[in-house]
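Listing S7. Sequence submitted for prediction.
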Amino acid sequence: TSTLTSGALINSAILSLYGQSKINQLNLPSVEAALAIVGATPASTSALTNSDYQQLGAVRFASDCSWDSFNTSGYNDFSLNSAGIDAINKIGNTKFGGRSAIDLDNGSPNWVASGYTTYVMGYFADQTDTTQDPKLVVTYSVPNLF
């Protein structure tokens, strides 16, 4: 998004994540195991650390993708809402994160036993090749200043 100018007016944006895998060992309802898109402020864009988990936002930037709907062999599209569009950095790097809906909503799952997990996983930009990289498609206009 760094090629947009600061004067660009963003009309819409779609974030697309290529799915890799998903597991629901906790048997959460599909909407609780859903993937929510939020803001992120990691210290580095190329070397994530455990402390970066605390840098995930608490505001949804798009409708959640339910666990049942999450595609593990293709792109999952998230149409950004106004908060998501406002988070786009027009002159730098735009950073998004993903959280499970139950985490974002501060819910408590019924733990069946330790060692069980629920997640959806996608590919990221550091994946070999570019056929499964995340995509952000921005529709915008630049006002005529004349």
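Caption to Listing S7: primary sequence and predicted structure tokens for the chain studied. The chain has a mean pLDDT of 89. The longest strand covers residues 9-24.
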